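HUMAN: Mind making up another protein with tokenized structure?

ASSISTANT:
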Amino acid sequence: MSFEKRIHRRVKPRGLQAGITYKNTTLRETSLEADILDISYSGIRVKLQNPLDTDITGKVKITMILPESGSPFSIHGVIKHQHTDLECGLHYIDHVEGSIDDLMFECVELDETTLLIKTA
């Protein structure tokens, strides 16, 4: 039996996309598009449209538009693990306290049993 060891709950936003920007060892900047698979207070897992370079150096920048407010949002991270050529997990680094709260608040998972009623 497998027990969940995560400290932070994972949220699975539907249809949320992000831009991923990074530099390789020759300092050439590369940008990729990705679908966000899940988000937590410590990291984000994405499915890329194209594979990552194998020679990434330093931080990775993740940029997205928040789903409710439409506000742009960016955060830096490092690649923590790579499941396949197109799927990887990034651990947040150098973020401003509170900014992850904004992201998580807008990416609350809705499942089939949840009814969302928005009022003006």
About this structure: Residues 44 and 62 are 9 Å apart (CA to CA). The chain is about 5% helix and 45% strand. Strands lie at 17-24, 29-39, 43-48, 56-65, 72-82, 87-93. The two ends are 46 Å apart (CA to CA).
